[in-house]
Every structure is written in structure tokens, then in C-alpha cells.
Specification:
Elements: H1 12-18, H2 21-41, H3 50-68, H4 72-77, H5 79-96, E1 98-100, E2 103-108, E3 113-114, H6 116-133, H7 137-140, H8 147-161, H9 166-183, H10 187-205, H11 210-220, H12 231-243, H13 254-257, H14 269-302, H15 306-330, H16 348-366
Helix pairs in contact: 2-3, 2-14, 3-16, 5-6, 5-8, 6-8, 6-9, 6-15, 6-16, 8-9, 9-15, 12-14, 14-15, 14-16, 15-16
Length: 379
């Protein structure tokens, strides 16, 4: 990572030179590992998953590089507009969204199908970062000043819960909480909210869907329904256990190749890796994730403007949540939720969202020494 201070008048070539190429290399390597795993999961074939994923990854990388070279003040200026656009699309989902796997989460534009709740994870962080960037330390201490950002979080969370998509709603809440915390909100306010959340859990249970209740009950006792609600996690544990230290070999996983492992190309792709390449393969991928997340937090800590610092922290924490929730889910540490493994699981909108987030992180890194006043102008 270079620690030179980019100015406002850098040429295109200088910007390319100052980009965080170490971070870019890790992103590319993780994406290629994902494509290789999808190739294996598809029976050592480019169809139906590896080929489309390669195309999406190439498009996403191009978009990431364009975003990385964009002035950080662009994201500050249009943060609310981007948030408003995603909020509008979430409303459209409720009215005319496409149904898939029992949930109404997608919008079909004909040439592309997108999941607005994924993109909301990025735009919500940017909007909150812009709001807290405009506040003074004294403002943050006033509870009334927190009503607007709280509403910015509550509205999309409610819309996502209606889809229903509990996993994404929780990620939106946790990522937003990280921005609130780094923005200066006192820790005791989070404690109060946790107590209130615990108090309403019995009431919330009555509003969960039957499949959500089943997932929670299976988490408590995985063997209660091994051929029904507990099938996924039971097969996941069998596959990971059979991989051992070095795995069965690329394309040789019995649970995945013989179709015992469900959702092997999406939520349970990490299990394919653990079965075929063993514990060493799994730890190698987790090591890459650790390095990428470390890059993100370093960018946040070294950024001199509040907007970039908050956005970088929120985006990095969102990426961490993707990794943690997916791996914890397939290993049985938390209930099963529909959260993909970042840059590895098959899916267009999730990959696009993560690469956009990485592009913004790279842009913040490039402009980390730029000082921006609360009005959005250079100091």
C-alpha cells in the first residue's frame, strides 16, 4: 500500500499508479477461486454457473476500477440520491417484484435482474456517512439529531422484512450500527437498544414465517429433522468433515458432485471448498478475506476526512458480516440464513454490490488525504 498523498490534480496515469494494487490482487484472486469452485460444482463444466460468473466478474471488475478512479466527493454529493433510488426500487419490489424461492426480492428489467436489498447495503452506508459527516461532535450528543438517520435505517429494514429477507435486514441493521458507533454515538445508547430488542423478541417470534421458526429450532437441535429442515446443515457438516486436512481433490467431492449438498453454488459454496480442498483450502480463502478486510480497516483508519472514514468502516464491516455470517451458517454456529459468500457464491447482484463497495473503498484510499469540510468542500 502506498502512503503518498494524492492531490486534486492527478493525471489518469498517476491515479492508476497510486491505486491500492495489493487490495485489487486479493479481490481478483478471491473471485477466481469462486469461479473455479463453481466450475467444480457444475461437474467440471463452465455451465451452468462458472461461465456466467466469469462474465459478471469481468464486468464488475471494470465497474470497480471506474468507481475507484472517481473523486470521493462524488459519493458524498450523491449519497442521498443513491439511497433514495434504492429505496424507490425496494418499494417497487413490494408492488411488482419478481418472486423466486418463495420470496419477492427481485426486479426484472428484461436485460438484467437485480435485488435492490443488496445494493441498499452500500447506499445506506454512504447516506449515513454523509449525514454524520455533516454533524459536529455536539450535534451527535443530541438524541433528536439521531432520529433522521434512525429513520433512514428503519424504512429499508422494514421493506426488506416484508419480502421476507430476515438475513439481509439484520445485515443492514448491524452495518448501520457500525457507522453510528464510529460516527460518535455513545455506547450506552446501543445497550438500551439491545435491551429493548431483547424485550420484544417474544412478540417478534409470532411474526416469523414458519420456515424461519423451523431454522431457529433446527439450530437448537440439528438432528430433530435430518430429512427436512435440518437436511442442509447436516449435509454441510458431513461434507466438511469428509474433506479432512487436504480434501478429496478438486472436483472429487462426493456430497457436492452426487447432489447431496443443496445450494452448493450459492449459500453453501464454502462447503464445496472445504470438502474438495480440505481445511488448508478453507483457511487459505479465509486468510485472503482477512487481508482484504484488514486493507479496508487500514483505509478507514488512515482517511483524513470524516465521510471517507465512516464510509470505509461501514463498507468493510459489511464485507466482514458477509464472510462471518456465511461461514458461521454453514458450520452450524448460527441459524441458516440466505447470505452468500462474498465474491465466491453464484449471483449477479451480490457480486456487483461487493465490487461496487470495493471500488468505493479504493476511491477512499486514493483520496484519503483530502480534507473535506462539513459542507462538502475542501478545507
Amino acid at each position: 500500500m502506498s502512503f503518498l498523498a494524492p492531490s486534486d490534480n492527478l493525471s489518469f496515469g498517476e491515479k492508476l499508479r497510486l491505486l491500492n494494487w495489493g487490495m485489487i490482487a486479493i479481490i481478483v484472486l478471491i473471485g477466481l477461486i469462486g469461479i473455479a469452485l463453481l466450475y467444480s460444482a457444475g461437474g467440471k463444466s463452465w455451465s451452468p454457473w462458472a461461465g456466467p460468473q466469469l462474465t459478471r466478474f469481468a464486468i464488475g471488475l471494470t465497474l470497480m476500477m471506474i468507481i475507484a478512479l472517481t473523486d470521493i466527493r462524488f459519493w458524498l454529493q450523491y449519497a442521498y440520491a443513491l439511497y433514495g433510488g434504492m429505496l424507490f426500487l425496494l418499494i417497487v419490489v413490494e408492488i411488482a417484484g419478481q418472486v423466486g424461492m418463495g420470496a419477492q426480492r427481485w426486479i426484472n428489467f428484461g436485460f438484467i435482474v437485480i435485488q435492490p436489498s443488496e445494493l441498499m447495503k452500500i447506499t445506506l452506508v454512504l447516506a449515513l456517512a454523509k449525514y454524520f459527516h455533516s454533524l459536529s461532535f455536539e450535534d451527535i450528543g443530541q438524541p433528536i439529531k439521531l432520529l433522521f438517520p434512525a429513520a433512514m435505517v428503519a424504512v429499508p429494514v422494514c421493506l426488506v422484512l416484508f419480502q421476507p429477507n430476515l438475513g439481509t435486514a439484520l445485515l443492514l441493521i448491524l452495518a448501520s450500527a457500525s457507522v453510528f458507533f464510529v460516527g460518535g454515538v455513545r455506547w450506552w445508547k446501543f445497550v438500551v437498544l439491545l435491551i429493548l430488542a431483547a424485550a420484544i423478541l417474544p412478540v417478534a417470534w409470532n411474526y416469523l414465517h414458519d420456515y424461519q421458526k423451523a431454522r431457529l429450532m433446527i439450530f437448537m437441535n440439528p438432528g430433530a429433522d435430518p430429512l427436512g429442515a435440518g437436511y442442509n446443515i447436516m449435509q454441510s457438516k458431513i461434507a466438511m468433515g469428509s474433506g479432512g486436512l487436504f480434501g478429496r481433490g478438486f472436483g472429487q467431492g462426493t456430497q457436492s458432485q452426487l447432489q447431496f449438498l443443496p445450494e452448493k453454488h450459492t449459500d453453501f459454496i464454502f462447503v464445496v471448498l472445504a470438502e474438495e480442498l480440505g481445511m488448508f483450502g478453507a483457511w487459505f480463502l479465509l486468510g485472503l478475506y482477512f487481508l482484504l478486510i484488514a486493507y479496508g480497516f487500514i483505509i478507514a483508519l488512515t482517511c483524513r476526512n470524516q465521510f471517507g472514514r465512516l464510509a470505509a468502516f461501514g463498507l468493510t464491516f459489511t464485507f466482514f458480516l458477509y464472510v462471518f455470517v456465511n461461514v458461521a451458517m454453514v458450520t452450524g454456529l448460527i441459524p441458516v440464513v440466505g447470505i452468500p459468500l462474498p465474491l465466491v457464491s453464484y449471483g449477479g447482484t451480490a457480486m456487483l454490490t461487493l465490487l461496487i463497495g470495493c471500488g468505493i473503498l479504493l476511491s477512499i484510499s486514493l483520496h484519503r488525504d483530502m480534507r473535506i469540510s462539513r459542507t462538502g468542500l475542501n478545507e
